[in-house]
Amino acid sequence: MEKRKAPTFTFSVIAIILGVTLYKQFDFENLKFEKPALAVIYIITFLFSIYVIIKNRKRKSETSLSDE
């Protein structure tokens, strides 16, 4: 159980940092990013971290249901 807490926490921190960074870099008047190439990398990493978080939560809920 301890093995799964560390990656979830790490990817949660990464997702929060990247989400805030993407929000700050987005120009709402022109609907564009300040640095589009860097924004693509941020978005890919952000989506991957969200995927890992959701995957770990689903696995955790399936494990707890099978334990009952």
Automatic annotation (TrEMBL):
Keywords assigned: Membrane, Transmembrane, Transmembrane helix
Chain ranges passing through the membrane: 7-24, 36-54
Full protein name: Membrane protein DedA with SNARE-associated domain
Organism name: Mucilaginibacter pocheonensis
